Amino acid sequence: MKSIKILCIFLFFLTVLVQTAGATRIKDIAQLGGVRENQLIGYGLVTGLAGTGDDLKKVLFTRQALYNMMVRQGITINPTEFEKIKSKNVAAVMVTAALPPFAKPGSTLDILVSSIGDAQSLAGGNLLMTALKGPDNKVYAVAQGPMTLAAFSFGGKAAKVQKNHPTVGRISNGAIIEQTVPVALGQNGTLSYRLRSSDFSTAANMSDAINSTFGEGTATPIDSTTVNVTIPNDFKAEPVPFIARLESLDIKVDTNAKVVINERTGTIVMGKDVRLSTVAVSHGNLSIVIKESADVYQPNPLAAGETVVIPQTSVAITEEEGGLTVVKEGVSISAVADALNAIGATPRDLIAIFQAIKAAGAMQGELVVL
Q1: Which of 45, 50, 292, 352 is deepest in the core (most CB within 10 A)?
Q2: Domains along the sequence of the chain with CATH
Q3: Contact 174, 201 (CB under 8 A)
Q4: What pLDDT is stored for residue 5 in this prediction?
Q5: Residues 199, 254 contacting (CB under 8 angstroms)
Q6: What are phi and psi of 285, to 5 degrees?
Q7: How many other C-beta atoms can be found within 10 angstroms of the C-beta atom of residue 138?
């Protein structure tokens, strides 16, 4: 009896896995319109560097920023005397961050600090208070604190040792949010979802899944990217539970058949729907080796003449034998891969073969060259 119960449980979970195989949650393929991050940027100073900062004699904007900071702190300095300062413990930096949606004042952000002068390293530096602004030039956060770098750089005039990139650092929770960007959630009782990868079939599948769960007419596909959703009356007062249930729905994602090739790196990526018609392929490598040498002809000791250098060039051409190989029509991506592997070509050879197959009209899919 116990074994039968275990078998039933196993069959139940197996059925669930089969039903959900190939399905993807809506939240993983679509984004709610208006709910997005906003980029912030600010200009600041990093202090406390051990002689690896900007050269104040060469980087004028660092010297000007340091002077302005001291004036704001109530320190009176003669501009003429200030130009004589030779400190290299300060560096000018740009500070960037991403303001998430629905972030509240008082919350913190991770920030990225990068040098814009001639500083050698930001290791051990401390970022002074920096205002982070949005595209509207309003201050949304204020950043400050010690940086962490997964890098170092040491050396002198004759040698230098460096690991990773020492002029870029991060500060975890280094910025405090001062104000947020308002987000209108469920305005006019509708939501607009945008697919990250445009496809009519995926938009239709998404609409069908929502309508089958919440009722006909809830979702309407507008185009290959946008699906509008009407919030049911039961959820209009509190749309968050509705959005949570909606984004957890599993749908079937459809994509165009594509082959993406990158000749610089020799990378080939094939989509699951790529098919090849029956075609015969012959590919042979051609190698050309050119060698140059110099022969010296010298006259006899008592003869008139000059020593002459005559260059000699030899060219060797090697072409591999390549017979015709029939690539049969593939019904799956594994069959296509097996047929291409049977040719025995390298990835860079396969790039040329794919281009030739596409030109012959035997590839059912799009060829994208990066």
Answers
A1: 45
A2: 38-177 (no CATH), 184-252 (3.30.1360), 259-369 (no CATH)
A3: no
A4: 44
A5: yes
A6: -80, 140
A7: 12
